[in-house]
Amino acid sequence: xxxxxxxxxxxxxxxxxxxxxxxxxxxxxxxxxxxxxxxxxxxxxxxxxxxxxxxxxxxxxxxxxxxxxxxxxxxxxxxxxxxxxxxxxxxxxxxxxxxxxxxxxxxxxxxxxxxxxxxxxxxxxxxxxxxxxxxxxxxxxxxxxxxxxxxxxxxxxxxxxxxxxxxxxxxxxxxxxxxxxxxxxxxxxxxxxxxxxxxxxxxxxxxxxxxxxxxxxxxxxxxxxxxxxxxxxxxxxxxxxxxxxxxxxxxxxxxxxxxxxxxxxxxxxxxxxxxxxxxxxxxxxxxxxxxxxxxxxxxxxxxxxxxxxxxxxxxxxxxxxxxxxxxxxxxxxxxxxxxxxxxxxxxxxxxxxxxxxxxxxxxxxxxxxxxxxxxxxxxxxxxxxxxxxxxxxxxxxxxxxxxxxxxxxxxxxxxxxxxxxxxxxxxxxxxxxxxxxxxxxxxxxxxxxxxxxxxxxxxxxxxxxxxxxxxxxx
Length: 474
Prior knowledge:
globular, Amidase signature (AS) enzymes, alpha/beta, 11-stranded mixed β-sheet, single chain
């Protein structure tokens, strides 16, 4: 029965409908897997075993009726910044260690409606601020492919859970690469949809103009299926105004005539093995009939500093509510409101969160707003314009997802070196365009990933190309 854990969503869904096994048996197999793995990788903050068993039984009843959606009975994990009614949502922070939401995020409600079965909440960098899941207030998560290395971040827990076969899929959130980078480090498919494709209602905010929820899976087709389930307009999030539906012809393998730009980044510091793997992907696409050419976007040289200024500025505003009065934990013994504010935040926020709040507050402060925040906004506009211009002549862009493979735990104690790892992922976030990471080889026995980007709303094109690459690479 434990062999079930190694199957993808579509295979499991077919088995459930053939009655090869029940949803209850499937969920129990994954619970057993979690129990055997968690002492080693620490992917989860909260486990929901009892709830999962009751929902698995309900899924079996629904499957027996013959009208169950694809995800009915399929186990999954949510990143712990996605609200779940009655289940702790901590953001991996001491500030929210005891928080139990009174409502559920739209994405969780949609998965529940589809009959999917929640097995737990995934560990993360505190409030999504980090690239290694070492900034969790509780414990770091280890990469299942090499436990001496990080799984990436900030969605490292969900990625590790999928890579360790604890669940077939997970949802993460991506602000500047927090789905794509852990997908790359853990050998998974990770999608940051077009901004506005997935509702952010119930997602604890980091940088609201950039945050987007997306799936982590082991196959391209599974990823598209999960995005189809969670995507739809939502009146509780004014930015959620799109719908994605995975058409069957996305996976035909026919990519003839699609133009692909092999993107050369300014200051590209990717390891030679990663550049070689991405160039081999370009060759695969050309062999399948795509038109591949090299392109450059000089405007991207400003992407990394612009992202860290803008995201930190938004974080400083979003996290201002955690003041010891309105939200979160409260420090004891304060003699004044100002002392309470300072004591609460210094006690319950970790160092990376404090660092970014300070950076954002400085960038927004009088005398510095023009020099930092407004210049960063201008840079973001130039980046969006550069993408719009290139997509007028090119259907898709191809580049590395990360400059390196998964790095050893503790190696990047300097925050600037950690931030540089986001070189390839932040431009798509600033532009609001879809970006997908998928495995494209190995280096030193660790996964290497390629990133595909397309114009706003062209999420399906990324799946079409990724499926063609996956077909050759498997």
